[in-house]
Every structure is written in C-alpha cells, then in structure tokens.
Amino acid sequence: MKLGFTAADEVFRAEVAAWLAANLGGEFEELRFRGGPGDEHSFPEQRKAWERKLAGGRWTCVGWAPEHGGRGLSINQQVIFHEEYARAGGPGRMGHIGEGLAGPTIAAFGTDEQKRRLLPGIVSGSEFWCQGYSEPGAGSDLANVKTRATLDEAGGKWRINGQKVWTSLAHESDWCFVIARTEAGSVGHQGLSFLLVPMAQAGVTVRPIEQLTGTSEFNEVFFDDAETDAANILGAPGEGWKIAMALLGFERGVSTLGQQMLFHNELEEIIAIARANGAAADPLLRQRIARAWSGLRILRANSLRMLSGPQDGRLQREAMIYKLGWSTWHLELGKLAMDVLGAEAELLEGGPYQLGRLQSMFLFSRSDTIYGGSNEIQRNIIAERALGMPREPRVRG
C-alpha cells in the first residue's frame, strides 16, 4: 500500500490544480461545490457543458487506456486528479456513471465494435449513462430482477419489458445499461443478460421520484416493448450476473478518493461553523468532530489499500467493507452537522422549501446506508465472501 506521492506526482498535482483554477470560473463559477449527492438536480445543462470543457482539456476518463481515449494515468495520478478536483469544488460529474461504470465494463467485456461505437461519446462528454439495476422487488437483491427481454431474431432487436427504480439521472441520460432476464423460467443469478439500451425512444418512460430534500435525482424507468439492437449486449446471453458483479468492482475505484475529499469539504464546513457559533466549546461535540476526522482518515487508508490491488473489476476483500464504512460514517456526519448548527438546523434558507447545503446533506445521507446495497446486505457480503462464513439461510415463499 502506497501512502505517499513522488516528486513527479506532486508536479502533476500542481498541473491539475492550475488547470482547474484557470477553467473552473467565469461561466462555470456557479457550479463550484454543486451537483453532488442530494444536489444532483442542480444546473444539469451547465454541468454537461462542463463535461465537454473537461474533455477539451483531456480530463475525462483519465485512467482509461490510451486506446480507449484516456490518458492511462497511474493509480497515484488518478487519486491526485480526483482529490484536486474535489478540493477545487469541481461540480458533481454528469458523466460519472459512464466514466466510472459503463465505460470500464464495456472496455473489459465489449467487442471491438462496441468499444469503437460507445466509448468515444463518454470520453467527449457528449453521451451520458444511467444504471438499470434495482427494481421494486429487487433492490439489494439484484438476482430477483423481473425485467425481461426477448430477442426478435428476424428484426435484430431485443424487446424489453419491466420496471427499474432509483435510477439516478435517468432523465438526463442517453443510454441505460439494463440487467434483464433473457431466459424464460430462469431464477436467481441464471438467465440474466447485460443490455445497453438507448433512452430516447417511445418504449421508455421516466418518472421522477421526489426525495426528502424536495429534489428528484432518482427516477422510475418503465420499459414497454423498448428496443435495442441485438448487438447491444455485453458478453453472451446469460452472462449478465458475471458482468454486473464486475461493474460493482469498478464502482469501488479511484473516484472513492474524490468522494472522500467531498466528505472532507463537508467536515471542514462543520468545523468552521462550530468555531463561529461556539459549538466547538461543547466537549461532546468536539469529541464527535474528532471521531469524524479520524474516521475519514481510516477510510482513506483503507481506500489506498483497496486501490493497491488489481483494477479489473474483481471485488477484493478490502473493497467489500468500503460501502458499509463510508455510508455509516457519512450518516453520522449528517447528524453531527445538525447538532453543530443547533436551532439553525430547523430553519429554511427560503421558501417554499429551500434547504441549506448541510440540511440537504443530512436528509440525503439518510439514504446512504440503503442505496448501492443496504448495510444489511453489505454485512452479508463481508461475512460470506470475505470471511468465508456460512451463507445466510434463504427463506423461499
């Protein structure tokens, strides 16, 4: 595990910081520190323009191999980029799902034709992706998906019917990667396929889901005889589970360090407020702030350990604890923020429902331990896959 950076790495850090300082201003100034979790509804068109600005500077997909349009940066340099991006207040990435999830999965499992056709749009910031995994009856239990797809061989199309839910930014996306059951009568992990589906068609309906924050980052997506070309399948029919699990491995990638820098920004804001309003004089609050500070550094150390392993989609044991760790930590940070704010936490900045940044963070953090695999499921994964303990008994209705 590498805990430090070389002199060459620090030169690269200065290059990243200088580019961001020169470009994250002017028309993009209002985007600074905006568009993160709980705020993803903000400035979508401007953030898409920012993706194109990043692409112009070759700052999208920086870890991708050069043959796929990336810079092929080392793990150290990728960590530096994501940290400096968050430190500068870079806005939430509209292209995150394409760059961090869809792209690496297509690069790993796609045909040469699929790579030539689909990867350039991600690199250029001109095509955006969403994730069609969860369903009303298959949230953390992905193997229970009911969405079905049948191949019309004569027409050369997959026809898809079903519903996905909690689909982030589906209303802003051009493509959705969809886990669907393509083998009639199959159950569990068997008979699933990984399909790439265009969103701009009559058979796709997107309905927003309003959150506690009053915003609608998430959506329901309905597929009613939606179509995608027969060639838009990753791997072979029935290999969807294997590819879906590899994608979740890519999700535990270097962007986790950028996420932690966002957490650092939130913690620094809480500390500044505590000093200004006198909450820092409370010994119990000081102790909780200290625990938050040390907990964030533990998350960083474990992430660096996780990133020292292969970055090929395999979920290493170190990676299996990450989601449980950060979601629990961030949940407690939201509570700490409200306690430091005191009575001000109960007051809105304006009407009809204008939340402050920490208020929005607190409310959105209620979902951290649910989305992306609930804490209960994460503990099962750690016990069964990392520690080799007996599987939890499955009760069949």
UniProtKB/TrEMBL annotation:
UniProt xrefs under Pfam families: Acyl-CoA_dh_1, Acyl-CoA_dh_M, Acyl-CoA_dh_N
Swiss-Prot/TrEMBL keywords: FAD, Flavoprotein, Oxidoreductase
Acyl-CoA oxidase/dehydrogenase middle domain ranges (all copies): 130-225
Domain Acyl-CoA dehydrogenase/oxidase N-terminal: 9-125
Keyword Signal set for record: no
SUPFAM superfamilies cross-referenced by the UniProt entry: Acyl-CoA dehydrogenase C-terminal domain-like, Acyl-CoA dehydrogenase NM domain-like
Cofactor: FAD
InterPro entries registered for this protein in UniProt: Acyl-CoA_Oxase/DH_mid-dom (IPR006091), Acyl-CoA_Oxase/DH_mid-dom_sf (IPR046373), AcylCo_DH-like_C (IPR036250), AcylCo_DH/oxidase_C (IPR009075), AcylCoA_DH/ox_N (IPR013786), AcylCoA_DH/ox_N_sf (IPR037069), AcylCoA_DH/oxidase_NM_dom_sf (IPR009100), Mycobact_Acyl-CoA_DH (IPR052161)
Domain Acyl-CoA dehydrogenase/oxidase C-terminal: 238-386
Entry-linked PANTHER family: ACYL-COA DEHYDROGENASE, ACYL-COA DEHYDROGENASE FADE29
Family designation: Belongs to the acyl-CoA dehydrogenase family.
Protein name: Acyl-CoA dehydrogenase family protein
